[in-house]
Structure prediction request, 185 residues.
Amino acid sequence: MSILKWLGLEQPSGEPVRGESGEAPGGTRGLREIVDRLDDMEPGHARYVAGFAYILGRVAHAEEGISEGETAAMERLVREAGRLPEEEAILVVRMAKTHNQLFGGTENFLVTREFADTADREQKEALLDCLYAVSAADESVSSVEDTEIRKIAAELGLEHRDVIRARSRYREYLDVLKRGRGEED
Prediction:
């Protein structure tokens, strides 16, 4: 699937969607250049980056809103994982967030399963760590986010010990542990 199609800027015929003025939406030259560069990416790598970003958005959106800190963490992680320039990472994250908000309930499992089918164990474990990093971006990993990460890990075929290993690196941000410490004070 082309990036234009994913953005909803391409019709089934492959022609760009045109507005009333006859101009394609998002017609700025900069946006077109970014989309062209993403379309030129090796298809397997593009699918990996898109799936990675979408799944990050899935956990960020678990509480019905994505904070600025979570967005910044997603952009950094997508830039690193995808070996992308900053502007491309920003675009990919924006697309992933929008797609997740619009279709998340129906596509979460499908996207995660496809990622699981193509990623190796190391990539899955790295994604798991990144999920906790995004959740902890606002210095809090809520129970809702933690539950979503556990669900994603299961869909990826990772084991409970993998979750515990990743989760332990973010224990200071786990709300469930913060409440326990607060009650003792």
User: Anything to note?
Assistant: The chain has nine helices and no strands.
